[in-house]
Design brief:
about 375 residues, alpha+beta, six-stranded mixed β-sheet, five-stranded antiparallel β-sheet, 19 strands, about 30% strand, elongated
Length: about 375
């Protein structure tokens, strides 16, 4: 086991393209951290720099406090599991597991011991004599994991290892990786663009965008308290709904109001007073009042997750804030439905349990869980306050 630290790491390619831009990240001894973000955000480049497969332009990579950023890959004591299995088709499972150790001239007895241990951890004992062509996709992935395990590295690196598997196998292998990490307690960095993998595997998640770190936190914190609109939109399925609007004062209290195309506060007030604008208003929760007050009569962005709309617990109570809307589409997905709605210029989606009947063209008014609202600065995209 080992600690891993990236200090102001930069990777610049030809044409002044910065794939990674000043990344600083600490990984604790025995921690499994996930790098997540869209394609091209720099997560795989970061992993390859840790492995030594890409050279650093600037910065430091330290394992247990030792700078390994200029060492050869073989001298870093890390093991990488790639997206493609890359098994030797002419070798048995045992031969694939032992191959790297033989190259390092590991004693035969030690090779046998490590292969047997990896086979036990990965439940491959009954497959040791088979060749890759005789294995399922999940079994081949376990062999690929085994090749890394027999190395007994200080740091494991995973580069989207489940992306070539079907949904059922991905779910199964996520559980396998969690079980293996809990047993081995090895420091690990896992790269994925799949938010489900990130949320279920990571003890902490590092969200990246355009080569820069956006937020690092445990999954629950990222979901409940995103640092900015990008993080809020990345995590969650369907993604968070966003509404552009303004903070107004109504009967002495702050409210969020959506309106049509406007250019200044006076015109907003006029439209609200006349009732000619197609809009909705929501009271600002007490927990947000102090933070959004500087946005009085100024633009702001409201965020609501789909599961925080249309709560059946709200019933028909007139005191529950709602968003009047028109149903545009309904998707039934097993135990739940995604209902796509329009309110004025805004389209959004709510997630409800299966069995609730919605039809295209229906007029509805889903209840809003006010305590779960989010507010973002439309210029900086950061969470306000």
């Amino acid at each position: 086991m080992a600690t891993l630290a990236l200090e102001n790491v930069v990777k610049q390619f030809a044409g002044n393209v910065r794939a990674v831009d000043g990344l600083t990240l600490d990984v604790a001894d025995g921690e499994l951290i996930v790098l997540v973000g869209p394609s091209g955000c720099g997560k795989t480049t970061t992993l390859r720099m840790i492995a030594g497969l890409e050279t650093l332009t600037r910065g430091s990579i330290l394992i247990d406090g030792r700078d390994v950023g200029r060492l050869r890959p073989r001298d870093r004591d890390v093991a990488m599991v790639f997206q493609h299995f890359a098994l030797y088709p002419h070798l048995s499972v045992a031969g694939n597991l032992a191959f790297g150790l033989k190259l390092r001239r590991t004693p035969r007895a030690e090779i046998q011991r490590r292969v047997n241990e990896a086979a036990d951890v990965l439940r491959l004992g009954h497959l040791l004599a088979r060749r890759p062509g005789e294995l399922s996709g999940g079994e081949r992935q376990r062999v690929a994991l085994g090749r890394a395990i027999v190395r007994q590295p200080r740091v494991f690196l995973f580069d989207e290892p489940l992306s070539n598997l079907d949904a059922a196998l991905r779910c199964q292998m996520r559980q396998e990786i969690r079980r293996i990490h809990a047993r081995l307690e090895t420091t690990a960095v896992y790269v994925t663009h799949d938010q489900t993998e990130a949320m279920t595997l990571g003890q902490r998640i590092a969200v990246m965008r355009d080569g820069r770190l956006q937020q690092v936190a445990d999954p629950a914190t990222l979901y409940r308290r995103p640092a900015n609109r990008f993080v809020a939109a990345l995590l969650g399925s369907p993604p968070m709904n966003f509404f552009d609007g303004w903070i107004q004062r109504s009967q002495g209290k702050l409210v969020f109001a959506t309106v049509g195309e406007v250019s200044d506060g006076d015109r907003i007030d006029a439209q609200l007073d006349s009732g000619t604008a197609r809009h909705f208003t929501l009271p600002v929760p007490a927990a947000w009042t102090a933070r959004v007050e500087p946005y009085l009569n100024r633009p702001i962005t409201l965020g609501i997750r789909p599961e925080h709309l249309g709560s059946p617990a709200a019933g028909r109570s007139p005191d529950v804030p709602r968003i009047p809307a028109l149903v545009e589409a309904v998707e039934s997905i097993g135990p739940e439905s995604h209902v796509y709605l329009r309110a004025g210029q805004h389209t959004f989606v709510c997630r409800v349990e299966a069995g609730r009947q919605y039809g295209v063209g229906d007029q509805v008014a889903p209840a809003v869980a006010l305590e779960m609202l989010h507010f973002f600065d439309p210029q900086t995209q950061s969470t306000v306050g």
